[in-house]
Design goal:
Number of strands: 12
Distance between the termini: 27 Å
Bound molecules: guanosine-5'-triphosphate, magnesium ion
Strand content: 15-25%
Structural class: alpha/beta
Number of helices: 15
Helix content: 40-55%
Order of helices and strands: EHEHEEHEHHHEHHEHHHEEHHEHHEE
CATH class of the largest domain: Alpha Beta
Radius of gyration: 23 Å
CATH architecture of the largest domain: 3-Layer(aba) Sandwich
Oligomer: single chain
Shape: globular
CATH superfamily of the largest domain: P-loop containing nucleotide triphosphate hydrolases
Largest sheet: 6 strands, mixed
């Protein structure tokens, strides 16, 4: 499962957004909760292809793709130097991406954690804390290597770590350092936070959503563009309230806000595009299921996601594109129309492929 960490300053709406993504009902608060624990929730990614297949096959089980979210307590200037922060940040070192929540909503009843609404400043503040947290990990490791017996391996590692330290001290996140693939391998085990892909979620209020504007928008768009961070807008408070309504009542309120997709749908598609992921589907009377893979995955590798035996005994992948099936209306009709393809093990699986793997063991 894809795993992400939700970070941001205190009281910017992390829990609100966590709730609307995961459909949980965790407590939000108008003052700094001062909570030092992370919370974990799982979001089901809505997928109309899975819905369609599920209607078609009436399976015993329907499984959507999922994203796990870990909300960590708010970061603020200097917080990376506390042991408790080191501990909760360690808990998101192995996530696939970070999602940073930035406050744009006005809400006078919730004091801004620093002063005024200024998402670029907040972004820099949080990123600096992440960078300092990485620097702390690096420095500890450097001291430990320097103090121990050093062989060629340790010398090599030390050289790379020292280059990283120099970069971080200049304010460069690790993903911006020009490291060769070989050098990068030394960093694998550390899973540095500033090496991770980051998505930005601006938490706007209803008025800002309707206007399509908020304080600092053009600056933020520029900064996000420069850094290559995807930027999404979510109307936290209202979207959370909508998600807590019965499903049949949500549509009108979403439409009224001018939203055609829920927060999790928008965030999931941005994340998949950014990380180069796609979904293929399997369907039968037992189960309809969406599987998440990287772009460029071959049919045999995709089979291995399901079971290593299927990869080992791979014969072919009977494949049909979702849109072809939808237009044909049934697998039998799709076969008559010649839309069912027999693909070999090197076939590159496409988003929305519905695959039946033929194999023998
Ligand atoms: N008007 C408005 N208020 C919001 C919005 N999002 C969050 N709030 C309010 O801001 C306060 C903080 O929200 P939380 O979601 O608890 O923020 P948080 O980032 O999780 O806070 P900590 O975990 O304490 O750091 C709550 O009172 C929310 O109701 C929003 O989009 N609009
Ligand atoms: Mg919170």
């Amino acid at each position: 499962m894809l795993r992400t960490g939700l970070v941001g300053l205190p009281t910017v709406g992390k829990t609100t957004i966590f709730n609307l993504l995961t459909n949980e009902h965790r407590q939000t608060s108008g003052f700094q909760s001062g909570k030092a624990e992370s919370q974990v929730g799982i979001a089901r990614i809505p997928d109309r292809r899975v819905d369609f297949l599920s209607d078609l096959h009436r399976p015993r089980k329907t499984t959507y793709a999922q994203i796990e979210f870990t909300e960590v307590p708010g970061l603020y200037p200097g917080s990376s130097q506390h042991a408790s922060t080191t501990a909760f940040l360690a808990g998101i070192r192995d996530v696939d991406a970070l999602v940073q929540v930035l406050r744009a909503f006005a809400n006078p009843s919730v004091p801004h954690p620093t002063t005024t609404v200024d998402p670029v400043r907040d972004l820099e503040t949080v990123n600096l804390e992440l960078l300092l947290a990485d620097l702390g990990v690096l420095e500890n490791r450097i001291v430990r290597i320097q103090g121990g017996k050093r062989q060629k391996e340790q010398e090599e590692e030390l050289a790379v770590l020292e280059r990283c330290r120099a970069g971080l001290e200049e304010g460069l996140p690790i993903h911006r350092l020009p490291l060769s693939a070989e050098e990068g391998r030394w960093l694998k085990n550390y899973a540095f936070l500033t090496e991770k892909p980051m998505l930005l979620v601006v938490n706007v209020d209803e008025d800002e959503l309707r206007r399509g504007d908020y304080p600092g928008r053009s600056d933020l768009e520029l900064t996000a563009g420069e850094k290559g961070f995807p930027l999404l807008t979510i109307c936290g408070q209202v979207e959370m309230e909508i998600i807590q309504l019965p499903p049949e009542d949500r549509g009108v309120f979403m439409a009224d806000l001018g939203l055609s997709e829920s927060g999790i749908e928008r965030l999931a598609s941005a994340t998949y595009a950014y990380l180069g992921l796609l979904s293929f589907l399997t369907a039968g009377e037992d189960e309809v299921k969406a599987w998440t893979i990287r772009r460029g995955t071959t049919a045999r590798e995709a089979a291995g996601k399901i079971h290593s035996d299927i990869a080992r005994g791979f014969i072919r992948a009977e494949t049909i594109a979702f849109e072809d099936l939808r237009r044909a209306g049934s697998v039998a009709r799709a076969r008559d129309l010649g839309l069912l393809r027999l693909e070999g093990k090197e076939y590159l699986v496409q988003d929305g492929d519905i695959i039946n793997f033929r194999f023998n063991v």
